Amino acid sequence: MEEFIRLLDAGCEELGIVLTEKQKEQFFKYFQLLTEWNQVMNLTAITEMPEVVTKHFLDSLLVVKVFDGIRTEAYSCIDVGTGAGFPGIPLKIAFPQLQIMLLDSLNKRVGFLNTVIQELGLTGITAVHGRAEDFGRNKEYREQFDLCVSRAVANLSTLSEYCLPFVKAGGEFLPYKSGKVEEEAREAESAVKKLGGSMRETKTLVLPGTDVDRTFVPIDKINVTPKKYPRKAGMPGKEPLK
């Protein structure tokens, strides 16, 4: 555990985040649950402790470099396609004032997420099973969140159609992308506009303690998303908006 805490502390220091002892213990418990459950179901290909700390935990927290308000504001936030809980659970541990909903299309993963939430004693966070296309059309969730985050692997046009319908006008969508994505961002500009968003300048950062790039494409929600979006399940992926 000492090495784990040392790596976590060093990375958090670089990000200007100070964790309490309880929060450090929660991160360590999360790591233990992730590796334990990963032996019986496919949650992540990254299982070595130093890599989990940097490529999952610190990577999730890297968003503070582009959206400082997440440190202190009690935003309502949805994590679309959360998988094993990234970035939503690390954000909840580090910034407990956030109200977070984790959305994933695989029920087994939601079972894991609920176990993590319970074992870590987290409140103000829920995990739900469903597809973004269905939830995005549901009045209970549509345009209900200040913030949407996603590390899901999809091109930006597709991801925007999944995510922007959840965000209130005046809110923010913060997709986590790998490497340099200028061309992808340019190609998605028209789709983002159709969905009520406005793209800001991309920001590429380096993960603490590595030479790995992470690019954020901040998107402001400036108008209500037209009712026809998101299209029915499967369509955003098969035929990305242009």
Automatic annotation (TrEMBL):
Q: List where in the cell it is found.
A: Cytoplasm
Q: What class of enzyme is it?
A: transferase
Please tell me whether the keyword Cytoplasm is annotated for this protein: yes
What are the binding positions for S-adenosyl-L-methionine in this chain? 81, 86, 132-133, 151
Q: Which UniProt keywords apply?
A: Cytoplasm, Methyltransferase, rRNA processing, S-adenosyl-L-methionine, Transferase
GO MF terms here are:
methyltransferase activity
Q: Which residues cross the membrane?
A: none
Pfam families with a match to the protein in the record: GidB (PF02527)
Instruction: For this entry, list what GO says about its biological process.
Output: methylation
Chief subcellular location: cytoplasm
Identify the EC number(s). 2.1.1.-
| Record family assignment | Belongs to the methyltransferase superfamily. RNA methyltransferase RsmG family.
Q: Which PANTHER family match?
A: S-ADENOSYL-L-METHIONINE-DEPENDENT METHYLTRANSFERASES SUPERFAMILY PROTEIN (PTHR31760)
Task of the protein: Specifically methylates the N7 position of a guanine in 16S rRNA.
* Name by which UniProt lists this protein: Ribosomal RNA small subunit methyltransferase G
> Organism source for this protein?
Alitiscatomonas aceti
Gene name tied to this protein: rsmG
